[in-house]
Amino acid sequence: MHTIRSHGATVARSHKHDWVILLLLVVIEIILNIIHPFYRFVGKDMMEDLKYPMKDNTVPIWAVPIYAVLLPIVIFNLFYLWRRSVYDLHHSVLGLLFAVLITGVLTDSIKDAVGRPRPDFFWRCFPDGKDFYDQWGNVICHGKTHEIREGHKSFPSGHTSWSFAGLGFLSLYLAGKIRVFDRRGHVAKLCIVFLPLLAAALVGVSRVDDYWHHWQDVFAGGLLGLFVATMCYLQFFPPPYHTDGWGPYAHFDAIEESRSNPNSAPANGFIVHETQFQPDFVTVPLGHNSSLQLNDMEAGRM
Prior knowledge:
By secondary structure, the chain is an all-alpha fold. 59% of the residues lie in helices and 0% in strands. The protein has helices at residues 4-14, 16-34, 63-83, 86-114, 121-125, 145-150, 158-177, 187-209, 215-236, 249-260, 290-299. The longest helix has 29 residues, at 86-114. It is elongated and about 80 Å long. The chain starts with a helix and ends with a helix.
């Protein structure tokens, strides 16, 4: 077994550059949330689709990291307690963090570049209901600065992209672990895999119901998050339908290396012990005296 105590530090050091890149992604994400988005032209005739009432979030922003990051990590740890594989735990956590952070950077980069108004933009811009426009017909907002800035970040939906990135990764992870595609036709396994995706979809629906996003924002965010989650998952794990889809590539690479060098430690510093259980067989030579030999065996003379 390769546990956190015995091999955790070695595995983490072998991916130190990946962890540095994660920190860099965190810094970029913070910067993207500080800078102002592009303030797109919004004319009076465009306000017909932007006069929806302002509402609170059904799913608050602080809840997104809990169900999209912490919940999957808890499930990863439960599987670690079962298999005791530091490869699986480390790579699943690393892949998940890459999925959500890459998705976050892509989402907020597009948000800032596009600057699409939210469905409730009118009330963000004109909280008293009195609208003003300049000589070119563009809005002259007199609402709160932070609400106006947030009102230009509709496309794509960040809640939805993060939800599909984290829960989509979890869905792929579960599909591999419970071997959904083992050709035995257990539909209950599919239900387990679809649960995280259903939760992510409901989060997306809530963004439209709360008038924070147009349906196109949610659709694009869902596709973006699921695509990034799939790409990050396949960096560390075989596809769920693969025969070895239950474990990370590193696990099987270490086993193969131990087979080729049974008397030496692998180059990456891991020693893999694989126990093979083989049934005991009695080899009976077949030939012209095979029937006599079988008779002797039955009589107990062999």
